[in-house]
């Protein structure tokens, strides 16, 4: 009898496998939410290779949470292809933190579709469905897996009673996937009693691998392994995430036509995802450099799909704008692309040295999307017309202009630039704040070098707070640097803000790496100052006296003389120089023809009116005289340039030629981003000139930037 039962189970499983049509998977569907205001809805993105993803529907929801959930919000969506190969199941946390905060949360949403476009949904309140679970206050991160032993879909999720640790439970969905037909049972708990959430099960080589996030004693992603789906999981005592930052939302998928798997997870404190690759679900390699996305997902999952299925998705949610903004040629400054829907125009700014006589934008084309011409074109004579067709929609003709621009000067999001000409190498260097992190939360510094101030090379990280600094791990802001020639060669002193304190690091090369002194140089407000922050250092070598000074402050401007060791201040030399009430931050001091120039930024860096102003003095200790018109640099709304501030300047050696280096809001999106524009900034360079009386001429910010600077030999 026992043999007959086992044979029946095997035949049922085998029959199910045979019933599945053979699929030729050639693309990937990513389902996710974004968080923040209006972010708790289901969104979709596509990829042709599992590494480069593009959001559908302009990164707007494809399913409105208000229509499918009890709370009006959904998170942690998980998508699964059914055993029949053509039915799709999706589950999500029924949760609206924008309206209700972090709980209690009682429900999950079950969804079913046959085309990935139209979905039937049901919200299941665990506390109302099962009396035994009336005391539950968290129902989080459900996922679905097919159980061939019982020919049913098993849903598993993390759940908590009162203040107990979260455990992972499971139950079977009914035939219509509109409810749970079995009472939840415990699937897994953390042996040491800590919480475990965000379960993700992968079946490989006749074993089930349960990825989950641990909380309480230790935090990260671990794996438990079992021969059975519903029991017997043995914990591997090893974290598998490839970062020291907090993570959650593990999601695993197999690459098409490969033995490799991708493990991805949400680095929720950093506002980004991390991708790793593995062949054995035990050893994981970080592959962030191989991955790109034009959106910022939170806890989601990825499922391989066919070309036909991808075409259904593009026909429904792909737009002409989506296609054109996918231009992937590495010479394009992708964060500065401008699409004018009303004018049917696309503007592609490109890096210096791009061959415009034969240029291919390299648009990403998903199944169902076509664009012509498909070969390189000559853009030196003006715009080129492209025809874009999606599914059965009428083709649209768009005029595409490609132009070389030198602003922004650096590729990516950076701010608070300090510029240096290094005698040792004969090159220019920019040292910026690494930007693009929510709430200015970047924790490392980079350097960029150039022989002509137009083409810049990324020299990589020169100081990483988590690894290199013991006294601060966050808010790596606004560095400055000075070069000194010694008997033993050149030495570089790098002053930086971290954790609202100011430190100093040293190196023997302008490209680093730099070694921190081991303690902050400045850790408290100067005497008499009641508010503000210890940030924005500026180091200045007085050519008249040979003395060195450090300036700093937010809400106040302070100065102190540096000792000969350059890593300590001369006692009793600190002085407050705040020029007037409009002063905010970003002091920069330079000397020209007998005059000391003091520059600073006014307004908040999140304001479109963030701007550069100046005063002059006969001494590095002031007092500072304010010219009648002391605005050096401000916004140009007609050009879409806003938030121009926090600058440094550079004098081309052997000349009276000067340039101002500053940051602005990202163009063109910055002005639409609200406060987030203040931490999505980019570095620009424009020429700075003086009147015959020594006053500074107002600088007009440009997109074109400067021409290459050639040093006189």
From TrEMBL:
Hydrolase keyword on record:
yes
Q: Which CDD domains match?
A: GH43_Bt3655-like, GH43_BT3675-like
Q: Name one Pfam family in it.
A: Glyco_hydro_43
Gene3D superfamilies reported for this sequence: 2.60.40.2340, Glycosyl hydrolase domain, family 43
Q: Keyword Hydrolase: yes or no?
A: yes
* Annotated family: Belongs to the glycosyl hydrolase 43 family.
Q: What is this protein called?
A: Beta-xylosidase
* Organism expressing this protein natively: Mucilaginibacter dorajii
